[in-house]
Structure formats: C-alpha cells, structure tokens
C-alpha cells in the first residue's frame, strides 16, 4: 500500500489529523493496535478549549458537540473550604465546552467512516522504517500476515506508550519528566452533576474534582496515594470521601449512584524534544504528558495536529518546507506553557505527602495571590480557556 501520510494511533490525535489531512486532499492511513471498541471504552478528558472546538469544526466533526456539549463560562475553586469562582467570560471573553473525549473520538470515527478513510484496527507489531530517508515506510501484522505502507511522512499519534517516540535515536531526544506522588481515582456515574460548573477542591485530605459529561452524567475525581488500587475504593467509600472533601452545601446536593467506570490514573509531567525527526512527526501524548489538573492533555493534542496539518498542507500545496521545519518549535512553545499551567494547578490544589508547614503557607499565599488580584484570575482564565497554537 502507498499513502502520503501514515498515522500511528487512532486516539483523538490520529483521528483528528486524519480528518484535517483529508479535508486538505492529503491521503492518509491510520494504524491502531487496539479495537475501535477498546479505544471508545477509555474514559479520559472532558473539557474542550476553543482551539479544539475550531479543530473539530475544520474536521467536519463538530455538529453533535455543538448540539450536546455544555458551554461553561467559569469554574469554581475551593481552597480549604474557601470558595472562589473564576469567570472566564468576564476575564478573557472566552469559554470552554464540556464534552467527553469518548464522544469526540466517536464523532471523529464517524466522520472518518463517512469519508471512506482507512483505519486498520488491531494492527500489531507496528514498526517504522527509513524515517531518516526519502522513502520511509511502516510495517504491521494483521490476520497472520505482515503488511507494508510506503509513505512520504509518518505521524506518531500513538500516545505515551507508543512505538513512534521510541523510533527516534536516544542521542537525538531530550526528555523532561516529573512524576507526582499521587494518582487520580476517577468515577463515572449516571447521576446529575453536583454543580452546573466544574469544582476544583483543595482539602487537607486531598484534591477532588467535580466534573460532568451531560446534565445527567457526572465525572468525579479524588486524589489517592499511588499505592491504592481501584478495588480499595468501593462506591460507598468513594462517595463518602468526596462528601468529606466538598463544602457542606455541595456535599448536601451530591446525588450518588452506581459507578459506570472507576480507574486510577498516575500523574506526570513529560516532554520529549524535538517533536520531529526527519520524516517522523510526534503529536499529542506521544510527545508530551500533563497532569490532568489543567484539562490540557486532549487540547494540546488537538493543537499539535492542527499545526501539523497546516504544515503538511503548506508542503503539498505550496512545496514549502517552512511549516514542517518549524513544526517542533511552534508546538513546543505552547506545550511548555501548558506544562507550566498544569504543574502550577497541580502544586496549588493537591496535598503533597512530604510538604512542610512553609510549603503549605506558600500554597495558601499562592491561592490568595490568584483570587485576590485581578491579574491572578485573568492569568488562570487565559490559560484554562487555552492559549493560541
Ligand atoms: P492516546 O493515548 O489517546 O491515543 C494513542 C492511540 O495510539 C491509542 O488508541 C493506542 O491504542 C494507540 N497506540 C499505542 N501504541 C500503538 C502502536 N504501537 N501501534 C498502533 N497504535 C498504537 N486529558 C485531559 O485533558 N483531562 C483528563 O481528565 C485526562 N484524563 C486522562 C486519564 C488517563 C488514564 C490518561 C492515560 C490520559 C488522560 N488525559 C486527560 C490525557 C488524554 O486525554 C490524552 O491527552 C489524549 O488521549 C491524547 O490523545 P492522543 O495523543 O491521541 O493519545
Ligand atoms: C474531566 O471531565 O474528565 C476533567 C475535567 C477537567 C480536568 C480534568 C478532567 O481538569
């Protein structure tokens, strides 16, 4: 087989890139190691920045999101029971859309199916070849046979544990990492959300987040030690601890119910540079990871692939290499800004097991700086609704 761009991974990065390239008349094939059902079964992000909304519009996959997504014009922060609302619209004139990553993925899958774009699911042993030559190609195994796809470029959209980043020589890559000493226990339930907006809570017993997927489906998170397992957290324990960390009015409003999904995600900050090596481009979690406290992971991925699609269109339509040559530097500028914001929100709102009295006072002072100064709230709002890519 031959295509212009071989895309590894059919998560949001790969699917959005496939659609944007299709819209530009650039042929592409996506290779995904899992089944489509498995990909849809992963419960992840929930907040879309305006640049992500624009990306879905360009991809022709925004219709249901506009119909069912919830526009949020602010968010509530609670710091040791002191409440404060950050008004995005008042501060920066923008908002966010609450719409689950699962639904984004489903809409992108449907849009790709409508274009007849080829996605090979359950493609095993994907390997990248000749990425530093003018004739790169990808091989994979399926139905007991090895297949080859010759291409001009390869887009590594295969997430943190994918094969693409590992295909770049170790002496070329520079990586940066911070692993946090706790995880997020997430619960999905068909219960009405506790509030019409998200609530981020810093409590002496740990962080909590009240989010949602619709007016009848809620998503909640609790900071838990890395040693905890999902089986340590029966639903009753989860609800009791969430009530403990919420302020009384919210705890009183909380509607509990059976969990549809429960999982623990580790938190890390990670960046690998550069995001391009000859004919291979990395996008999304394949290149960077943020702690979900800033709701940036999915949105960074959407920014990367919009930048990559523009660069490849410039190459194919104008024979210019300016876009692809500038891809890595352009993405990393926004990636590091989002890494900073996500690290800042994580340090501000979590209880660190080894923090001393002084560090706790610094957290308190940081929160007061944020909520008691006009610039503080504006800076949070600017970062939360999304920086331009
Ligand atoms: P993804 O990891 O989503 O997709 C990569 C795809 O590549 C997968 O389908 C994988 O199966 C496939 N793949 C991997 N190796 C392959 C190979 N060798 N061959 C072929 N295919 C291969 N972000 C937020 O903003 N908010 C959140 O609350 C949030 N929660 C998260 C919870 C968890 C447990 C995780 C892991 C991430 C979370 N994220 C969150 C971040 C998440 O939303 C990512 O940013 C987003 O999925 C990035 O999309 P992709 O770059 O497409 O990577
Ligand atoms: C979610 O709804 O899953 C979500 C929302 C905001 C975050 C993280 C996760 O910061």
Architecture overview:
The protein has helices at residues 12-23, 36-41, 50-58, 63-68, 88-92, 101-115, 235-245, 248-253, 297-318, 322-349, 357-372, 374-385, and strands at 5-8, 28-31, 47-48, 70-72, 74-79, 82-87, 96-98, 118-120, 124-129, 137-142, 145-150, 153-156, 174-189, 198-202, 208-212, 218-224, 259-273, 276-277, 280-282, 288-289. It is of the alpha+beta class and 389 residues long. It has an 8-stranded mixed β-sheet with strand order 6-5-14-15-16-13-17-20. Strands 8-2-1-12-19-18 form a 6-stranded mixed β-sheet. Bound molecules: arabino-flavin-adenine dinucleotide and P-hydroxybenzoic acid. Arabino-flavin-adenine dinucleotide (FAS) binds next to α1 and α9. Residues 45-47, 198, 209, 211, 219, 292-293, 295 line the site of P-hydroxybenzoic acid. One of its GO terms (molecular function) is FAD binding.
Provide the descriptors you would attach to this structure in a database record.
single chain; 389 residues; alpha+beta; FAD/NAD(P)-binding domain; 8-stranded mixed β-sheet; 6-stranded mixed β-sheet; 12 helices; 20 strands; 38% helix; 28% strand; globular; binds arabino-flavin-adenine dinucleotide; binds P-hydroxybenzoic acid; RIFMO-like; flavoprotein; FAD binding; FAD; 4-hydroxybenzoate 3-monooxygenase activity
